[in-house]
Specification:
Family: Belongs to the glycosyl hydrolase 7 (cellulase C) family.
Protein name: Glucanase
Helix content: under 10%
Distance between the termini: 28 Å
Structural class: mainly beta
CATH topology: 1,4-Beta-D-Glucan Cellobiohydrolase I, Chain A
Oligomer: single chain
InterPro entries: ConA-like_dom_sf, Glyco_hydro_7, Glyco_hydro_7_sf
Number of helices: 6
Shape: globular
Number of strands: 32
Radius of gyration: 21 Å
Catalytic activity: Hydrolysis of (1->4)-beta-D-glucosidic linkages in cellulose and cellotetraose, releasing cellobiose from the non-reducing ends of the chains
Largest sheet: 10 strands, mixed
CATH class: Mainly Beta
EC number: 3.2.1.-
Length: 453
Amino acid sequence: MFPFKALLALTTLAVAYAQQVGTQTAEVHPKLSWETCTTSGTCTSNAGSVVLDSNWRWLHTTSGYTNCYTGNEWDTSLCPDGATCAANCALDGADYTGTYGITTTGNSLKLNFITNGANKNVGSRVYLMNNADTEYQEFKLLNSEFTFDVDVSNLGCGLNGALYFSEMDADGGLSKYPTNKAGAKYGTGYCDSQCPRDLKFINGVANVEGWTGDSNSANSGTGEYGSCCNEMDIWEANNNAAAFTPHPCSVDGQTRCEGDDCGATSRYSGVCDPDGCDFNSFRMGDTSFYGAGLTVDTTKVFTVVTQFLTSDNTTTGSLSEIRRLYVQGGKVIQNSQVAIAGIDPVNSITDNFCAQQKTVFGDTNDFASKGGLKGIGAAFAKGVVLVMSVWDDYAANMLWLDSDYPTTADASAPGVARGTCATTSGNPPDVESQEANASVIFSAMNINSSVSE
């Protein structure tokens, strides 16, 4: 995901990462099935479920109802330091439909952007659980193909319906950190390539040291620490623009950072690549490929296919290429080809494509510095967790996805134009008012154990 996620605590609830478990609301994970398929076309259904990220949950005292975190501030009497806060505060169960607008039916997940219950909720993030319902489902992606259907017809400018993989611990950090009593069952242990510092708890303790509330958001802030890991953005999109982006890191697995390791003073000083190597068809020169009534028609449901090829076509080889296909109306649609001078006319992500793109666009090639495809492929070999979310962007109004960005650059310069949305779009208060009924639907997820050419 890109850039720093101000989305993570944008509800008017007292949301926060917590490590104890509350008893006010039972935690019942909505069921969501998915499939494992073979190249012969045989598919097996798997019973799974989704769990809400703990940053959205009610955080209160272990013995009562007093909030440990309200607005964008900690209760310093309950949380004078990280360890004391973890002992004093409990994370409670979630009303998935009524409070957060999260519903599942069979193999389909719908995420509503705004939910007006007792309090207003903005956005959400969920993880796929395994059939035991106590750990996140882990996927090993090398030499495999991941497929899902998506409906973005109700998702306009300034919004992002995202599906991606992060190198999180399967148990949410439960076994590594004794002060984490909640674990994956309550959505703990998040990390990504932005090394987000707005997480309330990291490694089992509260992120209270140096916590500063955001000036443009009533509910979020940043602490001294961040949580970093490899991230593969399979899908970041609305009905105007879409991108898929690998983000490698120089660290192994979920890692707490501080200072420059988080990229605090310099965007590229951190242990992860914040920009990644993106393939956005509009940005790559094909402005008629993705959108309403275009080759991939975003007014209708379509299938997204992502293939992870290795150097030797085995599950132990190095990741060498990431391919994209679409299927809509029974027709297979090849990904658009690059139409930018100085970049080969390819339609997939390779290290060579990334190097050419960074050079032509004048971007820092932190992708190569942090390990490139081989680096993120190492995470795929060990296992990554599936994440799905809907969010708006308090940091950059989502212009990096669907408009001209940076706005100070010449829109005709290579790499600046990324979609058809106006540079005045995406302001979160406007989006939350005008797009209150927005939603994204992910369905029919499956993984094929080997790539079908």
